[in-house]
Amino acid sequence: MTTLYDDDFYGWSQEQANLLRTKRFNELDAENLLEEIEAMGRSERRELESRLEKLLSHLLKWQYQPSRRGKSWLLAIKEQRRKFVDCLNENPSLRNKKEERLIIVYQYARLSAEKETNLSESVFPDQCPWTFDQIMDNGFFPE
Fold first, then answer.
1. In this structure, are residues 56 and 107 in contact, taking their beta carbons and an 8 Å threshold?
2. Is the pLDDT of residue 1 over 60?
């Protein structure tokens, strides 16, 4: 089975699904199945973090470049909030990690905002200046 896993992932996945469906558990490629299940979980977490990073970056740009505010930035903030909530709703067990991830993701958002604004990273606060509730509040736009 490992050969099929390495050479034809789709074929391997269909075979594993069929083995599960027919309850032939002893024939499963358990090692690779476990690896793939864990990878799926990491992928969901990364998607959530990506949404949060984009949202934080847009909020930083909104606050530190007020002269450039426009409808596209407003809509980008609203879109990222909505997509973040969708990710949380699809993966409720990630809710208990949101505060922990906020601390880490904010640092990436600072770098992203620096790149997109050409402002120095030192312009932006070292720690996230907003609470998680503020970040997710549809009426919140930092001044």
1. no
2. no
